[in-house]
Amino acid sequence: MSTATHDTQREAPAKPTTTVGKAADYLDQRTSIGVAVKEFARKVFPDHWSFMLGEIALFSFVVLIISGFFLTMFFEPSMALTRYEGEHPASMHGELMSVAFASTLDMSFEVRGGLLMRQIHHWSALIFMASIVVHMMRVFFTGAFRKPREINWIVGLLLMILGLAAGFTGYSLPDDVLSGNGLRITDGVVKSIPLLGSFLSYLIFGGEFPGHHIVPRLFTLHIFVVPGILLALIALHLFLMVLQKHTQYPGGGRTDTNVVGYPALPVYVAKMTGNFFLVFGVLALMGATMAINNVWNYGPYDPSPVSAGAQPDWYMLFLEGSLRLMPGQGTEWVIFGYTLSWNILIPAVVVPGLLFTFLFVYPFIEAKVTKDDREHHVLDRPRNRPARTGLGVAFLTAFIVLALAGSNDLIATHFGLSINAITWVFRILLFVGPVFAYSVTRRICLGLQRKDRELVLHGHESGRIVRFANGEYIEVHTPLDEQERWLRVNYDSPAPLEIAPKTDARGVKRKGYASDKRWQRLSRFFYEDRVEPVTPAEVAAAHSHGEHDQLGESDERPAVEAGAGTTSREH
Amino acid sequence: MSENQNPQPDASHEVTVAPEAGNAVVPADRFTDPGVPEHKPRLTDTDPRAAKRAERTVTLLFVLSILGTVGSIVAYVLVPPDGTTGGVRLSTLLIGLGLAVSLLGIGVAGIHWAKTLMGDREFVQERHTLATQGEARETAIRDMNEGLVDSGVVGRRGVLKGAFFGALALFPLAIAVPLIGSVGGDWNVSSFKHTMWKRGTRLAIDPSGRPIKASDVTVGSVFHVIPETTEEFRESHEWVTEKSKAVVLMVRLNPEDLRTDQSPEGETWSHEGIVAYSKICTHVGCPVALYEQQTHHLLCPCHQSTFDIADSAKVVFGPANRRLPQLPITVDDEGYLVAQDDFAEPIGPSFWERLK
């Protein structure tokens, strides 16, 4: 088929002979699918293990849909009260509960494979969110969000937020004590919103908490609205990825104008399909062997009991921790008789608001302080952007401190510590930790850059000490090979912004100077300390110390044979 | 290393260092790109026996997957859950292990195949600037402008444009208004402020609903309390909602330990050291359920707000700001504990119009 030429008629000149060929020809004559095959079959994708993280997110989403479909066949999203007729588990027999909870018990105990699917579904949700977060970390630290991928970064962020929404709405469906208390916390948070709080609470619950509308409403959101938007955005995310072609790690022959890697057919198709089955397999293994959310141990929702040591799913821990850390005393203001609850608004609205705003605006801020309008397809090594890497680690530190604070009761009971002391430690760490993490990370990055410079200038230490005829001892340094060196010198090191002076030639004050000045200050924060890549001239200069002529001449010979001749010296 | 002495500007970088490079410092003198590393053949590329071995491994893994699927179905048929938790666990484990072997077999086989037998030569493809270039760009701009001119909205008919956008912005209201009007039930948010406790309502044990005699409450004991009501009501939805507001935690302290409670001057809201406080945390509404007898502290297990029962349930630690509202209690003629009235203030988390 591929031999079609322009001057022949409509029919393909070579008639297909194989079954696959005939099928393809049949399809092509009706859909011109050949164009797509030509475009994509041998499309090159760069290869790196970290490019698999997003795949894991995608595949756990597929597993969520498969296992979720299974569950919808047996789940009844109704809050009508019923007495549980099932014999198993015995502790629940004859209990008054909602139909939703009863059907959850039924699918766990009576439907063969039902509990397996519930557990696979729950584990998949946890892995889905985890792989999204780790994938985002890869994208952030390697600068993959830079032009032209800012839009896809935003799409990815929206996917993460929708993932949180999917997790939250699904978690509450079984109508058990644990998730019911989670909903109650949500209700408390919603009520704290100024002016609208009470009405939003009514809007969500269809009246007073808990009412009898919330489970069917969450069900519709969970199986229709949220996954629908998720699917649409995933399609957009992948479409943009294919359109813009994947980024690649720096290395020999890889530039911003090419893409180096393996063809989609067969290598990528095989690896991706294999990865899907691996992800599904591991999730099945988790679902088979690791019990999760045994709702029959908690019992149906009842507004009175609560269990100690209860934790939300991990991706909600940071919000829980945020709520736990906020000191309450004096934070509830009454203004003209209206109540404003900072003790809830700050941890539940302001803190996550700040965290998400940082993620949304970061690519644009960085582009602005770098004054960068180029297309970037080669990734950064994190060390080459010390400020960005430092900010990313600071962000993660804040996130982890909040998540740990969300488990402060478990930390207290496991290590026999005072919960008040732990809470205070986390309160302080939330502020000190990110600053400390930023500064340490930035220093480490700068150190690694200097180490790279050292390596390029002087080569690897070989551990071999050589004595010259004149009695001088030196350590033999093996020069880096071309690929090693290229990796360490091929990067941009932006300088802080330079701005036009405050006044023009005639001494008239320039408009917009104050704003420029602010951006310059921010730019200095990013790029004040820089380590520039080594230039060939610098290498030449480093080699020119001492036995310069001799070294230059013998450079091309292999190190071992050349002995002291190939050395450059430690200065 | 010989090229170092004679550096050549890298052609590909020359192109990208355009004015839009901004403040990236690009020295004129740079190393040259050594190009894509040479392909190193794998064992399976050079040794036919290794290739054959890899082929056999892949085949074996696919067979293992088939066995996993069969095993899973065998487990489904032969090990039905007998209803006990252990039986359900066993069935889950066996079906799940079969499924996992079936999936992992395919996954590992596919990746092993790709890594050992499929070509591993790297290809280089050119990227194209994403922005539309040259003639296509000009055509697009021209078509766009022609379309706008054809529509007749350019530069005139402000009222038309206003009406168009106005209509588009407003039409969703026809759906939103009925939806929002009904989605919040009766929208009577003032019901947050009241519970079903009334003067004379007996305090009853949660969940049995049995009324409590003052004489049955020993010093140091804790009762989870609901208002007494009919059995039928306790099987209705309204009950779950009412209970969410009405639950109370009742403790009997030594009267001398009870430093203060919330009753105003000249009244008493406790009965011989028995005090009853709302069980709904004033932070975000979790049931405050952990009572520590020695310190008289009541701890919310959700966010660790801690209240001092001996001192009018004021906050001693954690994110809550307000004390737990007290239920005024007394005893009736038969010696049962009863409420004097509803709570004096709204229970649970704060909301905007709480004090209005």
- The quaternary state of the protein chains shown equals heterodimer
Biggest beta sheet summary of chain B: 4 strands, antiparallel
- Order of helical and strand elements of chain B: HEHHHEHHHEEHEEEEEEEE
N/C terminus separation of chain A: 65 Å
Question: What is the tally of beta strands of chain A?
Answer: 9
Strand content of chain B: 5-15%
Radius of gyration of chain B: 38 Å
CATH class of the domain at 192-339 in chain B: Mainly Beta
| Biggest interchain interface, per-side counts | A-B, 152 and 119 residues
Structural class of chain A: mainly alpha
What's the average pLDDT of chain B?
A: 89
Give the integer mean of the pLDDT values of chain A. 90
Transmembrane segments (chain A): 51-75, 120-141, 153-173, 219-243, 276-296, 344-365, 386-405, 417-441
Domain Cytochrome b/b6 N-terminal region profile (chain A): 23-250
EC number (chain A): 7.1.1.8
Membrane topology (chain A): Multi-pass membrane protein
What would your notes on this structure say?
The complex is a heterodimer of chains A (571) and B (356). With 571 residues, chain A is mainly α. Among the domains of chain A are: 1-40, no CATH class; 446-566, no CATH class. Helices cover 59% and strands 7% of the residues of chain A. Chain A contains 21 helices and nine strands. In chain A, helix 5 (114-141) packs antiparallel against helix 6 (150-171) and helix 14 (386-405) runs antiparallel to helix 16. The longest helix of chain A is centred in the C-terminal third of the chain and has 40 residues, at 419-458. Chain A is globular, with a radius of gyration of 30 Å. Chain B is α+β, with helices and mostly antiparallel strands and 356 residues long. Among the domains of chain B are: 43-116; 192-339, Rieske [2Fe-2S] iron-sulphur domain (Rieske Iron-sulfur Protein, 3-layer Sandwich). Helices cover 35% and strands 12% of the residues of chain B. Chain B is built from eight helices and twelve strands. Chain B has helices at 11-16, 43-46, 48-78, 85-116, 134-151, 158-170, 173-183, 237-246, and strands at 24-25, 123-126, 203-205, 222-227, 248-252, 274-278, 290-292, 297-299, 306-308, 314-317, 329-331, 337-339. Chain B has a four-stranded antiparallel beta sheet with strand order 3-4-5-6. In chain B, a hairpin with a 5-residue loop joins strand 9 and strand 10. In chain B, helix 3 (48-78) runs antiparallel to helix 4. Chain B starts with 10 loop residues before the first helix and ends in a 17-residue tail after the last strand. The chains are: A mainly alpha (571), B alpha+beta (356). Chain B: InterPro entries: QcrA_N, Rieske_2Fe-2S, Rieske_2Fe-2S_sf, Rieske_Fe-S_prot, Rieske_Fe-S_prot_C. Chain B: The chain crosses the membrane at residues 58-79, 91-114, 163-184.
